[in-house]
Amino acid sequence: ALTENSCVLATSHVPTMHPVMAAKQATTIDHITNGRFALNVVCGWFRNEMQLFGGTLMEHDEAYVYAAEWLEVMIKLWTIDGEFDHIGKYFEIKGGFHDPKPIQQPFPAIMNAGKSDKGRNFAAKYCDMAFIIPQNYDLDDNRRVIDEYRRLAREEYGREIQVWSSAYVVQRDTEKEAQDYLNYYVVEKGDREGAANLLNAGGGGIKDRMKAPAYEELLFHIMAGWRGFPLVGTRDQVVDGLQDLSDIGLDGCLLVWADYESGMRQFKAETLPALIQAGLR
Q1: How far is the CA of 22 from the CAs of 14, 150, 263, in angstroms?
Q2: Residue 123 near residue 112 (C-beta atoms within 8 A)
Q3: What pLDDT is stored for residue 203 in this prediction?
Q4: In Å, what is the CA distance from 144 to each residue of 103, 138, 150?
Q5: CB 81 within 8 A of CB 26
Q6: Are 19 and 70 in contact (CB under 8 A)?
Q7: Start-to-end C-alpha separation, the chain
Q8: What is the pLDDT of residue 172?
Q9: What is the per-residue pLDDT for 202?
Q10: What is the pLDDT of residue 212?
Q11: pLDDT digits over 1-20, tens only?
Q12: N or C, which terminus of the chain has less Cβ within 10 Å?
């Protein structure tokens, strides 16, 4: 309510919340922000978290069937005037209604980070934004992933979709200072055990399925910034890196800092003016 430009993009793990409750909460935020809300829909991947909410981790493809109906109920609440009934596989809604409607019309933007074939089809069919996690840092490879996402949405579902990703920012006055700080907080101080536990929570035995150098690289980027693209160096190098990501077709990028408060202040004061000058904002 105190900001003017920022979008509030919240994540909802669909097995943990009823779509009626999620629709009402999302609408409240949309009104508070005067139409600056977006929703990231996640099917749930962390088994312990699903158990915490009294559920189980669903079979992969069935989880997207559930999410599709969850989203269908939410969109009905956002768009249908008056009451409606919904009888589906997972939800039975009698006399469903929702008022007031979201400020954004027809409803707030939806994001999903589907990586599998089922997940990519879900995002291409139902979402406005697809979020990709880079599997490597080759720009040409990631350009192909982005182009394929757009082709799938266009050819299979007659839709245009944005593609987003993430990057971690380590900005200093010199490239050496930036690399030294990255080494400090990842190699010297990084929580390897925590990063390994996180990887195992998303799919047990990942270490056994990967060769040692690839696994170590994955751990490094998890600790550095949740596997995002590395933007390490001076202000100009960070800007050039974001330009590269824009050039391969990304529409947006989630930025991560090891110390997010000081990192965001520095970014606003030093980097954002250079991004505007470069035409990236």
Answers
A1: 9, 28, 32
A2: yes
A3: 58
A4: 35, 10, 10
A5: no
A6: yes
A7: 23
A8: 98
A9: 62
A10: 84
A11: 788 989 999 999 899 999 99
A12: N
Residue reference for tokens 């080494």: 183
Angstrom distance (rounded) from CA 64 to CA 70: 9
Q: Tokens standing for 193?
A: 């055990």
Q: What angle do CA 92, 96, 97 make, to 5 degrees?
A: 160
Q: Which residues contact 110 (CB under 8 A, 6 or more apart)?
A: 38, 39, 40, 41, 71, 126, 127, 128, 129
- Taking only the tens place, the pLDDT of each residue in 175-208 is 999 999 999 999 999 999 999 988 887 655 677 7
Q: Peptide bond before 106: cis, by omega within 30 degrees of 0?
A: yes
Q: Provide the 3-class DSSP secondary structure of residue 85.
A: strand
Check: pTM over 0.90? Answer yes or no.
yes
Spatial contact of 202 and 45, defined as CB atoms under 8 Å apart: yes
- Helices marked H in the chain: 19-32, 47-52, 60-79, 117-126, 139-157, 175-183, 192-201, 206-209, 212-225, 235-247, 260-266, 272-277
What stretches in the chain show pLDDT beneath 50? none
Fill in the DSSP letter of residue 185: I
User: Looking up tokens 């350009």, which residue turns up?
Assistant: 143
In this structure, which amino acid lies at residue 26?
A
What gap in Å lies between CA 147 and CA 250, rounded to an integer? 10
Phi and psi of 57, rounded to 5°?
-75, 115
Q: Which two tokens stand for residue 271?
A: 């980097």
